[in-house]
Structures are given as structure tokens and as C-alpha cells.
């Protein structure tokens, strides 16, 4: 069953994924009924882990996927507990019980309910983060804590010459590998901002963006 809405936004590259598959270390799936929330998460993940391929799934259009959907192709699933008319916890319970090695699930929930959070964790969710009031630092930590370590580029691009030792693994938290939002990049160039000023401006940008997750969908 194809993904109805798919976004390939590798932060370090802007080409077709088939052309750059060697630079994509793994895939993440965002399952959320609200387009604005999905877009924020795609951009945010591309910012903190630039060479990750992020797919979006809209349950309000496609409904519940079959077990052979292709879950094994993802290293992390970020899912809302409320999926339009569907129930994210019920999805997780069904898939986790029926699919061996189902990917780790991080719930990013629009439902501020302690019972739902407790139930999700008992079912085996890696974390449960409330959209309302979430800070970008909390969101970043929840995602990074549940992703595998980046793979050496020399392993996933065997036809290329090995890189120098100090560049053999992508360092995703390094300032020069994180992807600046266009507005921040333009301001940094215009105002000749220092590295510290760019970091502060970027943090402010993502604090504003994550506030979109606080807003109840229309």
C-alpha cells in the first residue's frame, strides 16, 4: 500500500532520493492526521538529522495500513494517539502484537490525558510527548534518544573513496551539518551574525515552529 503523502527532504541534499540513496542512512515515518503538524515535524527532523528520509502518512485519507505496509523500512515512527477517526494506540497495539520487530514508536500526542500516556508506555512506546506546550529541546531529545547512531558513509557508499577518519561518520549535532531555515540563513548573511547568534536565532525559529503543534487542528 503506497504512502499517500510522502516528503523527501534530506537537509544536506536536494535531489531525487534514488540518486542519493547512499547518503540516506534510514527512514522515519510521521503518522498524523494534521498536515500542518506533519510539516513541522518533517522540517524539524531534517534539521536535527539532515540525511534522514522522512515520510508522512495521513490516516484521514488512507485509513489503517495493512500489516504488509512496509513497516520494517523505518527506524522510528512518530505517531499521534488521535488519528482523525482512528485510534493511534489501537494501531500500535495491533501492529506490535502481530508484526515481529515492529519499529520503535514515539507518540507525539494531541491528547492531554494521563491514562492514554500510561497505556502507551505499557504497550511499549518509547516515549509520550504532548504537543501542547512542547519545547523544541524536549522534542529534539525525544527523537534523538530513539534513533540509531549514524552509519559510516564508507559503509553505505562502497563505490566512493573512503573519507578521512575525522569525517567518516556524520556528526549530526555539529553546527556545520545542521540545516538552517531559509529565514535564518538570509538574516545571518545580511547581518554577518556570529556562530552563537546563528545558534540562538535557529533555536528561536524552532521554538516558534513547534508552537504550531500547540494549536488544535481546524
Give the SSE map.
Blueprint: E1 27-31, H1 35-48, E2 53-57, H2 59-62, E3 76-79, E4 82-83, E5 86-87, H3 88-98, E6 105-109, H4 114-123, E7 127-130, H5 136-144, H6 153-156, H7 182-191, H8 195-210
What does it look like?
Helices cover 36% and strands 12% of the residues. The chain is an alpha/beta fold and 218 residues long. The chain has one domain (1-218): 3-Layer(aba) Sandwich (Rossmann fold). The strands form two sheets. It has a five-stranded parallel beta sheet with strand order 2-1-3-6-7, with helices on both faces. It has a two-stranded antiparallel ribbon with strand order 4-5. α3 packs parallel to α4 (114-123). It is globular, with a radius of gyration of 18 Å.
In terms of DSSP E residues, the strand content is 5-15%
Assembly state (oligomeric): single chain
- Give the beta-strand count: 7
Total helices: the number is: 8
**Low-confidence runs of at least 5 consecutive residues:** 1-22, 153-177
CATH topology: Rossmann fold
CATH A-level architecture? 3-Layer(aba) Sandwich
Q: What is the SS-derived class?
A: alpha/beta
Estimate the global geometry from the Cα principal axes.
globular
The chain-level mean pLDDT equals 74
* Number of self-contained structural domains: 1
- Give the helices and strands as they follow along the chain: EHEHEEEHEHEHHHH
**CA radius of gyration:** 18 Å
What fraction, in percent, of the residue positions are helical? 25-40%
Distance between the termini: 28 Å
What is the CATH superfamily label?
A: Response regulator
Provide the spatial order of strands within the biggest beta sheet: 2-1-3-6-7
What is the CATH class designation? Alpha Beta
Amino acid at each position: 500500500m503506497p504512502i499517500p503523502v510522502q516528503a523527501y527532504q534530506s537537509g544536506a541534499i536536494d535531489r531525487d532520493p534514488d540518486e542519493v540513496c547512499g547518503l540516506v542512512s534510514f527512514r522515519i515515518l510521521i503518522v498524523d492526521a494534521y498536515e500542518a503538524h506533519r510539516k513541522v515535524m518533517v522540517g524539524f527532523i531534517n534539521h536535527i538529522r539532515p540525511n534522514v528520509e522522512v515520510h508522512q502518512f495521513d490516516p484521514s485519507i488512507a485509513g489503517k495500513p495493512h500489516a504488509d505496509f512496509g513497516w520494517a523500512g523505518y527506524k522510528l515512527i512518530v505517531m499521534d494517539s488521535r488519528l482523525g477517526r482512528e485510534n493511534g494506540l489501537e494501531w500500535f497495539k495491533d501492529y506490535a502484537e502481530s508484526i515481529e520487530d515492529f519499529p520503535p514508536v514515539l507518540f507525539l500526542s494531541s491528547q492531554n490525558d494521563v491514562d492514554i500516556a500510561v497505556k502507551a508506555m505499557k504497550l511499549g512506546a518509547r516515549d509520550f510527548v504532548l504537543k501542547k506546550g512542547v519545547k523544541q529541546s524536549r522534542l529534539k531529545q525525544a527523537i534523538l534518544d530513539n534513533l540509531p547512531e549514524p552509519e559510516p558513509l564508507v559503509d553505505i557508499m562502497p563505490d566512493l573513496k573512503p573519507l578521512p577518519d575525522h569525517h567518516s561518520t556524520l556528526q549530526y549535532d555539529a553546527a556545520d551539518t545542521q540545516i538552517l531555515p531559509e529565514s535564518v540563513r538570509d538574516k545571518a548573511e545580511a547581518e554577518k551574525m556570529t556562530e552563537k547568534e546563528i545558534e540562538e536565532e535557529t533555536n528561536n525559529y524552532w521554538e516558534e515552529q513547534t508552537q504550531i503543534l500547540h494549536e488544535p487542528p481546524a
